[in-house]
Amino acid sequence: MLTESTHNNHNNIEESFQQARVPAIYMDWLWAHGWRHFGVQFFRYNTMAFEDMQHEILALRTCVSDFALSKSQRRTWRRNADLQTVIRPVVIDDEKQTLFFKHRERFKQYIPDSLGAFLSPRPSHIPCQCMEVCVLENDRLVAVSFLDIGVTAVSSVYAMFDPELSGRRLGIYTMLLELDLARRLKKQYYYSGYTTRKPSHYDYKKCFDALEAYDFVSDWRPYPRTCA
What we know:
Blueprint: E1 3-8, E2 13-18, H1 24-32, E3 36-38, E4 41-45, E5 47-50, E6 53-63, H2 71-79, E7 84-89, H3 94-103, E8 130-137, E9 140-149, E10 153-161, H4 170-184, E11 189-196, E12 211-214, E13 221-223
């Protein structure tokens, strides 16, 4: 793999490369070293400008065997018990494209152009095996998340939901479904992606039990759940 761009000194890490196919065991290694990917573009960075501030980035993962639902997460699980769940290899269709454009209306900054910003043209297996966790209400797609599958870990790529059903907390619900799938697949870690050390839009990722954080300098360390 060739590094496409690299800026790495004592204060800043910004690295990327492109790779069309990555073995599952190497995906585990990349996630463990703070790497993420959208499509075939792999990247890692430890700072970013967001919400008019410069933020320090943390990568987060959950120890699957130690995870337990919080009270609010149990309520979210029960609240959505009437919905149907389908887990299968990723297929991008018109229904998902429509949901994407509804979901992106929630954003005021870094608004993505299309699902192609996150997924390859053949997302079920490029750059690695990827499953979709679909949530349906009376056969209508209301939420979906995309989950990469490694040998010992899984990693969430992207999730979207119908903003009209925001009271159901479907973004949290799909994360809980992903964690449940990781448990059933007997994976060790669930990588939920990047968050920021200071409060930000990404704080929802800190609301999980059995968290560990990686700051791109020291090793993974326990990270306290910061919300209910």
